[in-house]
Amino acid sequence: MTPLERSLVPSASPLHADAAHDQAFCAAAGRLAVRSLYEELVLYPKPGLVSLIDSGSHQDMDARTFMRSLFSLRHYFLRITAAGMAGACFDELKRLGIRAEREMLAATGGINTHRGAIFCLGMLCAALGRIAASGAQPSPEALRATLRREWGAALMGHADARDAQTHGAIVASRHAASGAREEMALGLPSVFDVALPRLQATYQRSGDMRLARIDALFALMAHMSDTNVYFRGGAAGADMVREQAAGFLQAGGAAAAGWEERALDMHRLLVRHRLSPGGAADLLGATCLVHEACRRPLPGADGA
Ligand SMILES: CC(C)(COP(=O)(O)OP(=O)(O)OC[C@H]1O[C@@H](n2cnc3c(N)ncnc32)[C@H](O)[C@@H]1O)[C@@H](O)C(=O)NCCC(=O)NCCS
Ligand SMILES: Nc1ncnc2c1ncn2[C@@H]1O[C@H](COP(=O)(O)OP(=O)(O)OP(=O)(O)O)[C@@H](O)[C@H]1O
User: Fold this and answer.
1) What molecular function does GO assign, one term (predicted)?
2) CA of 260 to the centre of ligand 1 (A)
């Protein structure tokens, strides 16, 4: 851990006396959040989305924009883990999130690369910090329960208090579609009930994390209401994404022969229609974070 990383954890949590352990944990959780978003970025093929290979349906950003954005977020995820560890209320977490959004926009020249991820992975990092402060080990159940218990009421309020300017708000007013705020207020059901079981099942069967992430991404696209897709493609575009992704999974997903060509077909189709399931990409990053954080203890966690 660098001296700068150490200085970003203001004080040890009152429940957890060992400051060095707390600092190591927050630094490890922060790095894991950035790595999870990096794993999403480098995954290919991803229908309509930016990767190292191409920019999918996007003209204003490419993998370099995402890398600059990720670099700007490295201290944010550490800070929000520490805030969760210290028992911060939602308003404090929100202040960190708003500052991270500003830093991301400064790093990308005003392009929104990680707005949803700042919110979603940020809340997960805060929950990881909270669990570590109690001396427990993270598990999907503990993360979900912590999100609900510590910040559930405030997240419900955040879902109701929509800013009329955002794309998500415009979509909510036009379609019967929920978005990032509702997903978070419900304790990330798309991550815990849909993507994580799919990722784990494919990984157990194949032992190949790339295939597991592909299946998890397609499960998310088949299931969720993605405001990025609704904003550009309306209800017809959203139906197309869900049907195409469900068809890929029905054909056997990433376990079936010829899966890569089928995934590339969907990529080309979405690019033709200028559609990009950015919400599913964010939740894939969140799923990777949950999976890794619960797989083995992070440095600094009790027993690690
Ligand atoms: C809740 C957030 C993501 C804003 O959501 P909203 O729908 O209002 O805005 P916007 O359309 O700009 O962003 C939505 C983001 O969520 C992702 N997304 C889209 N659909 C979904 C979904 N169903 N589930 C999860 N994420 C989704 C998109 O990729 C996009 O990045 C958050 O940025 C926020 O609360 N902003 C307000 C300022 C703030 O309080 N920030 C700090 C919060 S800790
Ligand atoms: N690999 C990825 N490729 C594309 N989008 C991603 C990727 N990973 C995450 N995203 C999410 O998708 C969003 C991309 O936003 P997008 O450009 O589709 O919409 P916008 O900037 O809100 O508006 P517009 O539709 O006008 O471009 C980002 O905020 C990010 O949260």
Assistant:
1) triphosphoribosyl-dephospho-CoA synthase activity
2) 30
